[in-house]
Prior knowledge:
By secondary structure, the chain is of the alpha/beta class. It is 25% helix and 21% strand. Strand 2, helix 1 and strand 3 form a beta-alpha-beta unit.
Amino acid sequence: MIDSTRSNKSSGTSTVLAVGAAGTCARLVVPELAKRGAHVRALIRDARHEETVRKNGAAEVVVADLADDVSIASALKGVAAVSTSPQRSCPMKRPSV
Length: 97
């Protein structure tokens, strides 16, 4: 299910699908993408995390199962890029910049 209450069609920004947006790594990536001007569509598997990913900068939220081709195809509509990373490669703490 896509909630597109904040459409980016008029702004001309690129939509980035952040897979696992509530996870250890993507929860660090979502605010950075938003800060850099991307329109972030967060893909989460549990709707209970919607408020958190929105607070982190996601403009849209998709609740989907990666094993469900139909929901993934729907999540990818209009997406210019996909952000995903293996769990093991993520730092447990936000690096200082």
